[in-house]
Amino acid sequence: MTTDLALEKLDFKRVLPILVIVLVDLMGLSIIVPLLPLFAARFGATPLLIGILQATYPMMQFIGAPILGRLSDRFGRKPILIFSQLGTLAGFILLGFANTLWLLFASRIIDGLSGANMSTAQAAIADSTTEKTRTQGLGLIGAAFGVGFILGPIIAYLVLAASGGDYRAVALTAAFFSLTSILLTTFWFHESHQDDSPAAKSHRAPFSFSTMRQALAQPAVGYLLLVMFFYQFAFGGYEQLFSLFTLTRLGMDATSTAGLFALAGVFIVIVQGVLIGRWSRQRGDRWLVILGVSTLAIGLIGTSLTPRVPVPWYSQSKVLESLAGQGPIRVSIRDIRVTLPDETAKGWFGIIWLLIASFPAALGGGVLHPAVNSLITKSSEKSEVGGMLGISAAFYSAANAVAPLFYGSVFQWLGAPVPFLLGGLILAMLWIFAPRAIPKSIAVS
Questions:
Q1: Which pLDDT belongs to residue 326?
Q2: How would DSSP label each residue in 102-151?
Q3: Cα–Cα distances in angstroms (integers) from residue 16 to residues 10, 83, 141, 243, 279, in the given order
Q4: Is residue 58 very low, low, confident or very high in pLDDT (cuts 50, 70, 90)?
Q5: Residue 105 and residue 88: Cα distance in Å, rounded?
Q6: I want to staple 58 with a disulfide (CB 3.0 to 4.6 A). Which of 282, 290, 394, 400 is the partner?
Q7: pLDDT tens digits, 149-160
């Protein structure tokens, strides 16, 4: 009885270093996420080109993450995590000194190719939990992600205010947090992958795309990988074009949008840090996946219906000045190629509507990723967990690569609301098919 109770309780001391490292890592990422589309707009990028820029990181991660995930099964989580973090640091430093659009692309390519931070951390959590506590552990990873998205935009806001709107200062601040995460991994994190005997390593084949096809052919894992792809295809456009949507729809600049990201982060922390472990034990991961898909569908469709009512504090001239920047990287306002709302009929209706729609979207995004990955680990051999999570990250990244290309072009040619409506409709279809796509047998630990 005592053993059973121990298996149902998460060992927080064991997972704490992983959670802190993820938190610091994600703070760096979340500092620049709200600014990247605006950074590109500064150099004359269209919505389509901004979508291509947003796709560059996940496209490179699609190549790098499964390879690094499999290598973490062979050589351990720690060296792969440090290598990935070094790539992130290099990408942020390059972003801080970027003065042309192609350097923005170069920074995202470097970060993407080495981008296995999250999947390797998830593998370390899987090493450190039981099947009973895995969803809670992966949920805490998501909660650390949420805390990062609370603190990151706040820090971005403070840095922008202190530097007079200098985007370079924000990128270098992100680099500082990335360096901190490298030091924490080096001196605090202890290797979690125990099955490191030469015999075990010799049986682990290096990653190839045939292993991805083999994973898809597995009845349980294959369904979950498809769910991961299509959910993130719909949600990826929402995440990556949200700041451009609020800019063109509500006239919100980087500072205002950072506040929305922070608010969403608070809600996600509550869901992933407090509720998801309880829901997983009470209702199961399959129920969580269906809940996440349905609420995301509602949130995205609601977002697409946001009325074009600029926020009360909107000033077109001030937003244009913010986009133009200052100092040696200042661009001409005439080179900015995004359409801003006019200043007539300003009010609270648009931002209130968007806030209401954001809650179901944040709920869905908060539960889906950890629930799907938890089911994948429960359906995989222990020696293959890192590789499978790497493949899951590859499908996630592939969706993130395709989504901004598709949604960026739709955004440019059909208008800001259309990509979000299409994403909601895709999720509504996924909601219908999810009960069949996820067998009940793997939902039981």
A1: 55
A2: HHHHHHHHHHHHT--HHHHHHHHHHHTS-TTTHHHHHHHHHHHHHHHHHH
A3: 11, 21, 10, 32, 22
A4: confident
A5: 14
A6: 400
A7: 677 777 887 888
Question: Which tokens is 279 given?
Answer: 């829901």
Count CA atoms closer than 13 A to 408's CA, side-chain side. Answer: 22
Residue 268: closest CA among 158, 154, 135, 141: 141
Q: How many CB atoms lie within 10 A of CB 226?
A: 16
Nearest Cα residue to 354 out of 293, 255, 263: 263
Closest Cα partner for 149 from 272, 231, 50?
272
d(CA 341, CA 110): 35
CA separation for the pair 279, 276 (Å, rounded):
5
Nearest one of 66, 258, 28, 285 to 144, comparing CA atoms: 28
Distance of alpha carbon 152 from alpha carbon 268, whole angstroms: 14
**Gyration radius of the chain over CA positions:** 21
pLDDT at position 354: 92
How many Cα neighbours within 13 Å face the side chain of 281? 15
Give one DSSP letter per residue of 304-373, joined into a string.
HT------TT--HHHHHHHHH--GGG---GGG---PPP-STT--SHHHHHHHHHHHHHHHHHHHHHHHHH
Q: In this structure, which amino acid lies at residue 68? A: L
Nearest C-alpha neighbor of 338 from the set 23, 44, 36, 8 = 44
> Are residues 148 and 306 in contact, defined by beta-carbon separation less than 8 angstroms?
no
pLDDT at 185 over 80: yes
Identify which of 286, 221, 233 has the alpha carbon closest to the alpha carbon of residue 427.
Answer: 233
Tokens of 208: 């190839």
For residue 199, is pLDDT > 50? no
d(CA 208, CA 441): 29
Residue with tokens 């470097």: 110
- Three-point CA angle 343, 348, 350, nearest 5°: 80
Q: Rounded to an integer, what distance in angstroms lies between the CA atom of residue 111 and that of residue 430?
A: 31
Torsion angle of alpha carbons 387, 392, 394, 397, nearest 10°? -150
- What does each C-alpha distance from 368 to 36, 272, 296, 307, 372 come to in angstroms? 25, 10, 9, 28, 6
Q: How far is Cα 222 from Cα 270, in angstroms, rounded to an integer?
A: 30
Is residue 442 over pLDDT 60?
no
DSSP state of 273: I
pTM: 0.66
What domains appear along the chain, each with residue ranges and CATH number?
13-191+219-325+336-443 (1.20.1250.20)
Q: Which amino acid is residue 5, in one-letter code?
A: L
